[in-house]
Fold:
Amino acid sequence: MSQKRMYWVFQSGGWFAWALNEAVLYTNQYGWNWAWIYASLANVSLAIFLTHTYKRVIKQFSWQDLPLLAMIRNHFFALCFMAASLVALNLPLDQYLLGDNFEVQMNAFIVTQYLFNFMKPLAIWMLIYFFFQYSKKQVEMEREKNQLENAIQETEGKVLRAQMNPHFVFNALNSIRALITEDPLKAKKGINQLSKLLRSSLLTERKKTIAITEELETILDYLHLEKIRYEERLNWKIDVAKNILQAQIPPMLLQTLVENAIKHGIAHSAKEGLIEINGERIEDQIYLQVINPGHLKIKGESTGIGLLNSQNRLTLLFGE
Structure:
């Protein structure tokens, strides 16, 4: 059974059970009258209309996200309004149907008594509704948490394997080997940078997010290693605002873009190329850019699995 269908089954079934109970009480006290059926139908229809409208108002105005006192105030006023609506229907209805048997003298106490009588089933309805909503939210949060952890672990693993693949390590080691006799100090520095890069990739595998400044340190090691290979063809410029350096992003997010920039903008060009990494904060959003020379050639509608992975990781962590 779908959730929508289940809701209507319990909604109509619960109010019909309440109305039937009221009809039995009236029958015991005043005797059988077909009017009790019509009165019950009128009450059921109004109660369903009121509670369903209340449910829609909660969702539309996000009452569950309000501060505690504001949320309690809104729900209390809604409860009073729904109960008052049922009183407004039933007081004249009782006077009309009971006729001479309606021996109640109208006063504030009687109206209050009517009000409290109708607040009881409405309050029970609200408690049941919130119990199911809370349970549903907890289940969804647990499911999203598991989904997030699994997806992050899977996508991070893919990105890390793509970044730290044997092909890259092989090229880096070959470049360093060529420097051993030519420039031993530079070769030693290259080994240290490769070591740091590999170590940071292993450490970030255990983290969901890292600071932008940590990501930039890894990128600099990566760029210095690639500089050995591409020499004067590879240059870079990093301009990231200080006020976003501690902001958290998924590990290897910018690293993936930098590798793409070198692959598509430097590797196939004989000219000097500049890789730009920019970052700034505008209002409540952070903008990060990796720019490379050349023109991107896209086959079909695909923009590469790396970009899709990056987009998915950001969406899973931060929403839209």
Observations:
- The first helix runs from residue 3 to 30.
- The chain has a mean pLDDT of 82.
